Amino acid sequence: MPGFNNSDTPVLRGDERTVKILICGHLGAGKTTLVNTLSQIAPVSTEEVMTSASTAVDRLDLPHKRTTTVAMDFGRLSLTDDLVLYLFGAPGQERFFPILRDLATGALGALVLVDTRRLADTYPILQLVEDLDLAYTVAINTFDGAPDHPDGRLREVMDLAPDTPLVKCDAREWAGSRDALIALVRHLLTRTPEPAR
Amino acid sequence: MSAARPSGDDRLVRAYVVTSGRWSPSRNTLDHITLISLTASAAHLRHTHLNPEQRSILAALAGGAQSVAELAALLSLPVSVARILLADLLESGHIITQQRITQTATPDRTLLEAVLAGLQQL
């Protein structure tokens, strides 16, 4: 099934269950691309405002600035008649932490996109996701011309826990992007205990 | 999305004018993905006291339910501002949310299994 197509954007009744997954990654990792590849609605972007909490960081460039706006891309997928998944492309900068904490509340988990040409940029993102207490899966976005390191080497460089899944996908391609989400949800299930009987 | 958007600061001022200067909603139960729909009585309720943004919200909901995040994007308003406007419309009886807010620390296994099955059959 292809991504966005105006004619088959499902209309919601309002009583569906909704869940959200955060798509994280450094600048240029492919967050927006992946959201747009999978979304069944036209790509949308919303803004959030940060108030005085960020002034310590913003003070350097603009003394009187008390607010910062940050754009977040998001998409929507109807999984079943009763279940809707929202994907939020989350800004990776540490100073947006208050907004991310709000967004991460109630999220199932995070998919962390990585460009292997910018592995060092991924460290703060992984730290951020861990600070948010989100379970995550790392997806290497297979950009044309990006080096294809062995998984063991990538895990070592990113210092991934042994049980953190590492997958590869091309964020422009629907099936691979969908499979990356499946890997994440499988991982989330392994971390969620069976209900006591 | 709207073609011409006011630049940052102007728009922020406008955003908080429409909430009458309030920075937090009258109730704090609206997540980004909370679905909002019109009440059956919305069409019969008074609209005269509503501001243009709130009327736009009601118009956007005429075609079906929308999440808080989608409504905010449609109106080019920050999510935090949309939450305030929506809380007012909830109290005035124009809109409802039929969802239970799920903010539990541990995700529900049944829900995760449903998400997995849904993704696999797309």
Automatic annotation (TrEMBL), chain A:
InterPro entries associated with the record: Gliding_Motility_GTPase, Gpn, P-loop_NTPase
Top-level division of the source organism's lineage: Bacteria
Signal peptide: none
GO molecular function: GTP binding; hydrolase activity
This protein's UniProt keywords: GTP-binding, Hydrolase, Nucleotide-binding
Keyword Hydrolase: yes
TM regions (residue ranges): none
Keyword Nucleus tagged: no
UniProt family annotation: Belongs to the GPN-loop GTPase family.
Protein name (Swiss-Prot/TrEMBL): ATP/GTP-binding protein
Protein species of origin: Streptomyces roseolilacinus
